[in-house]
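Translate sequence into structure tokens.
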Amino acid sequence: MCAGIILPPSKSTHAHTKDDVFFQHSRTLNISSLTRTSCYTSTRGHAPFGQVLLAYPVNRSVSMRAGDTIFSASLSEGELPNDATSGSRWRNMTFNAYSPSGQVEGDLVYANYGSPDDFDALAKMGVSVENKIVIMRYGSTFRGLKVMNAERRGAIGVVIYSDPMEDGYAVGKTYPDGPWRPADSVQRGSVQFNSLCAGDPARLYSNQSTLELCGFEMQDVIPKIPVLPMSWADALPLLQHLSNPSGVTPPADFQGGLPLVYQTGPGPARVSLDVNNDIHPGVIHNIYATIPGVDYGTPDDRMVVLGNHRDAWVFGAVDPNSGTAALLEVSRAFGTLLREGWRPRRTIVLCSWDGEEYGLLGSTAWGETHASFLSDKAVAYLNVDVGVSGQNLSVHVSGLLSDVVRGAIQAVTDPASGKPLSEVWDGVMGDLGSGSDYTVFLDRLGIPSLDLSFRQGNAPTSYGVYHSVYDSFSYMQQQIDPDFKYHVVQAQLWGLIALRLASERVVPLAPVPLALDLHRYIAYIQALFDGTQCAGQCTHIHTRVRKSASSRRQHSMVRGGGLDLSPLQDAVARFEGAAMDAALAREIAICSEERVQKRWQRARGAGVGGLNGVRRVAPPEVCGPKRLKRLNEALRLVERAFLDEAGLPSRKWFRHVLQAPGLYLGYGADLFPGICQAIRDGNLVLAQEQVGVCSSRVLAAVTALNSWMPLPSAHSSLVV
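Result follows.
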């Protein structure tokens, strides 16, 4: 369900300039501390948005027999005296959403992270997972894809555990003495196959079926075998009772952080896995508030969307409530600006998503349902999920938003050092894959997006008690952000970016950083082809591709291989030329100058237009409404041009040709994914076809960007 409120503008109906609003409020948005905020919505606005497929645990068990040894896993999280909510009954409700119910028994096999390469390594050792129960550790690959990989190789059940190497004592002190995962902490989570299609697996809310939207039947995007998560304390006895019957030493990277030599099995451990989950249709609730812009309700209205999900596996103090607190603070600050007479140039929509943890259900449903509207109106989508789990800023962003993000980072202060945040930030801007609510906006609709978070240093994972009962207020206050200072900075940063995007005369979407990204993406293809950049699915691929390419011409091919990237390189060079065109830079500068435009408006209102007082014309250096709209639309539509209506090969829901979640990564981004996945699959013909597809979309982006230029006519320089 979507329930909405509209925050009324002040009595003033004009958009204030950045002189009288932006510079007054941009440094802090009047956010100096967190306040106790209430969110009001009218029950009159509540109506079912549509049903989705939900899952809840009923009961489950895991037991092991190895010779005379019998072990039963607790599958529960212990109560901690200094964590006020850890005694909740939900500590006993550890499960993986969308795992089917089932009871299976079989020999146990350890498959490391469960990537295709890990299963290939097992096959080389002579270890089969067919009719076996597979145990894998969290990390590297999204949990649902671990299950997908095991299922495709004939496994009958899966256990996924949290290894201390990823987020436990191998990283640092464990909770309650530190921020990392204690022995009996369990990571819950969805096991949907998220890299195949996002959103409700059943598409119960939609007029289109899962097959029509995703290219897969519902049963192909969720597991057919039972799955359970487990703590390392429960996993340790299982792993201790594995041997190495093949006699081949497992690869070194199979070794985790537990005090044992990791063996693959199968056996002698024999495991019984019993899962009983209740999977049924249910209603979710998206809540949104709208701050109308000056053109609200007209065809010229454009909007900036902010989103955070509020559903959590248990209490979710970090994920997602640190982001939810920031969203409420941003809304409060905007309310203050409204009362002071401000009105945004562009409409702002504040969204609280439901069902994210199951597979981005709420945001995806909203995006699909309103796809045409969003494509016509949206300037950008700004996401915060895990708002604060540490003190290190993490930015993942579309290239077009890079400059506006950097500008906001320079304007806020790092609480720990007292320095500008830009001086302590590492400067890295990552690429967007999936795993949070930006997915439908970027990967499906081509809307520039970002995801902001404060994280723990260089740890392999975001924080230690992720998706457990210990993700609590006690954890946040004791281990992460005791004074909630980084919550404040998160709200400031998020709000500043939104304010600029909603208020600036020229929408701050910068094509030059995107052009630089495109060159980096080509380098990624080259590195992948050379075998120097590979994750999760690399075995024997490069040899196969080069053999199939032996008869192809070598001009502009990837370092002596057989993939001709010259069409893509040429297209990227053309985009770079358009992005760095001095005439475009001049146009942006002219149209951005507020005071010049205000003087022109006053002169035009007095009948002083430059040509006998005709008000429809003006000197060419003045940027009037038509000229400004043409420029803003050109910048806004660049990202849309990267959409291929046919979708990625074998993944039609994902339409963005520049980035998508890696097929076997899930969260992590793949770049030029149609090309790169074809390389990994050893399909040179498809890879070359995708070079053509990507080249055409980059050239379409060139056309979109160049549309800022007026159509040639005798008076085009005078029409504003």
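Note: The mean pLDDT is 88.
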